[in-house]
Amino acid sequence: MPGPVIIITGTPGTGKSTHAQLVANDSPIPLKNINISEYVKENALYENYDEEWQTYTVDEDRLLDNLEPLVAQGSLILDWHTCDVFPERWPDLVVVLTCNHTKLWDRLEKRGYPLKKIQENNEAEIMQVVLEEARSSYPAEIVVELESETSEQLESNVSRIIAWINSWLENHKNS
Ligand SMILES: Nc1ncnc2c1ncn2[C@@H]1O[C@H](COP(=O)(O)OP(=O)(O)O)[C@@H](O)[C@H]1O
């Protein structure tokens, strides 16, 4: 039986990749962990590279076509800073990570982002852009907001997601 499809989303720097890796490591079943930014680069699923913003313009149609067979197989984590491009039928759980914007600023500065990119992400986090996106794209019962500011929160978030996976498997064991 295929396992669930989990989207982990949030503004860049909120901790998606860190969470996704730990969830994949601790999961009771093997989960394929796809960092969409890396996947886009590796498979050249972009239209161009924007020098000014230091970001790829993703070819969303090709991205979705590429992901569709993987999603059909299930047992998947999709890690990306946006989520509303993914069809409503895809995820079983959408985790939105959030972080205090001052802390986020420090994380993005350490990452060497250009100032305007830090500012843009900082404002997006304050305005809860990704959270709103998730809430308007998926049923409320599958969207969960988790704060990701401390290592204790990281640990408890991962435990919660693992508990959710166990419960999902229990509920789907005959399907
Ligand atoms: N809950 C947390 N507590 C402490 N540090 C964190 C937490 N979540 C992420 N970090 C740190 O913040 C940085 C960005 O995390 P990362 O997982 O790369 O974010 P994203 O994938 O969302 O861009 C990393 O240095 C990571 O170790």
From TrEMBL:
Residues 35-58 are annotated as: NMPbind. One of its GO terms (biological process) is ribosomal small subunit biogenesis. GO terms for cellular component: cytoplasm; nucleus. Keywords: ATP-binding, Cytoplasm, Kinase, Nucleotide-binding, Nucleus, Ribosome biogenesis, rRNA processing, Transferase. InterPro entries: Adenyl_kinase_AK6, P-loop_NTPase. It catalyses: ATP + H2O = ADP + phosphate + H(+); AMP + ATP = 2 ADP. Residues 110-120 are annotated as: LID. It is an enzyme of class 2 (transferase). Belongs to the adenylate kinase family. AK6 subfamily. This is Adenylate kinase isoenzyme 6 homolog.
